[in-house]
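Hi Y.,

Following your request, here is the sequence exactly as I used it, all 149 residues.
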Amino acid sequence: MSGQRNDVKYTTAVVLDDVNVAPSAFLGSLLIFLVSVPFVVFGSGFFVMIGAVIIVLSVIDAANLATLMLTTRCLVDNGSLVVKYGMARRQNVSIPATSVRDIKIKQTWIGSKFNYGSVIIAGDDLGVMVQYIKNPLAAMETIKKSIGM
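Below is the corresponding structure, written out as tokens. Let me know if you'd prefer a different format.
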């Protein structure tokens, strides 16, 4: 049976471009970094240590956001909603479109001012929360439209 490929599916995935991480999410890390620098520069003893720890934590938070920004993808493939994110521990969550029960938005006060938030997709068995999404309302509508909800 040469020429037949029954094990390979020739389908194209539709990438949802409206579901991406907001650059404005970096503002929180930047603000914490800027506030803690005077503790290190002008402080002494205990305040220098506290400032240094806060600086390290803000850099780790910014690195986490950068990783999410570079790796978060949401797509529809073969009737399933697929969310991929992470670098060291790559997460691939696939939820069949028929089992998606609810899609919600979670937004902090700062997130509402800078137009970013989390989109929570709940299915029958599992769910996924995609964090720091730019314009979460438009992202939610795009996801609903793409899976026929």
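The first strand starts at residue 14 and ends at 15.

Thanks again,
Q.
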